Amino acid sequence: MLTDLHSVAQSCAADGTGLGAFNVIHLENARTFTRAAEESERPVVLQISQNAVKYHDGMLEPIALGTLSVAKAADVPVIVHLDHAEDEELCRRAIDLGFTSVMYDGSHLPDDANREATARIVEYARAAGVSVEAELGEVGGKNGVHDPSARTDPGDAAQFVADTGVDLLAVAVGSSHAMTTRGAELDFDLIAALRDAVPVPLVLHGSSGVSDDGMQAAIRAGMTKINVSTHLNKVFTGTVREYLAEHPDVVDSRRWFAPATAAQEAEVARLLRLYAEA
Ligand code: G3H
Ligand code: ZN
Predict the structure, then answer these.
(1) Across all residues in the chain, what is the average pLDDT?
(2) Is the ipTM of this complex over 0.90?
């Protein structure tokens, strides 16, 4: 069932479990991740990024309406979330379309501008009963350059939440986006300090670069929403590569999508269990 992020994240934070958030690039991903969530009997966040919208020729509706329809038919709580939107108008379009959560990412802006824009989105989202995630302290790797050095200050984070009224906060604690190896070293003391200072659930971005143990330790230290994308692309593409090497005569895309989505489904189910057992 389509569910709001605020209540699910609050309940995960209260019981110390992680909430898996996975990026939908193609519509198949929405079904794959939802099937994995149903198997694991866990809630899941299906997130569509501004970059994914760009990939779909700037059209939000086709991928979004399909994903919303998958979420509504699910047996478990499914949140449909806009990820890393730097465009305020895109946030408003997603809210109008029925997304249950949006991330306004103003982390590249000067602090005051980030605060003001985030507060505007919160006001619009509140009226529609939609949750808002924001980011403070830019997590590296969004422009292809890895930089795990950014850190979010706990005092600044608490003030940012008080000023904007966001439901979740993405913080910089040592991960970096789009890593294809899993050696990121997280600052667990900082995560614990942020958890103590910030009254809303925290979000770990760039989790593809974090090991299984690292993700579980991050959840124990106080992270709630765990965003994974690159790792699942790697699983998908690696499977396609192997399958096509073994079946060079196949031309029907459904034939090679099948093993690739099956591999992603197994990996998402495994991650969701890992987050539940942190
Ligand atoms: O917002 C999405 C995530 O932070 C995914 O990052 O591709 O490094 O796992 P990742
Ligand atoms: Zn991210």
Answers:
(1) 97
(2) yes
Residue 28 corresponds to which tokens in the numbers above? Answer: 């198949």
CB 12 within 8 A of CB 240: no
Contact of 37 with 76, CB cutoff 8 Å: yes
State how many domains the chain has: 1
Q: What is the pLDDT of residues 80-115, one digit of tens each?
A: 999 999 999 999 999 999 999 999 999 999 999 999
Closest atom of ligand 1 to CA, residue 179 = 8
Residue with tokens 């949140």: 79
| Domain span holding position 190 | 5-276
Rounded to the nearest angstrom, the distance between the alpha carbon of 199 and the centre of ligand 1 is 23
Q: Which ligand has the minimum distance to the alpha carbon of residue 209?
A: 1
Ligand nearest to the CA of 23: 1
- CATH number of the domain that residue 19 is part of: 3.20.20.70
Could you give the C-alpha distances from 223 to 15, 82, 173, 239, in angstroms and in order?
Answer: 12, 20, 10, 30
Which residue in 57, 83, 112, 213 is the catalytic one? 83
Partnered with residue 47 across adjacent β-strands are: 23, 81
What is the reported pTM?
0.98
Distances in Å between the Cα of 17 and the Cα atoms of 6, 125, 214, 227 are 15, 26, 14, 14
Residues with Cβ within 8 Å of residue 270, at least 6 apart in sequence: none
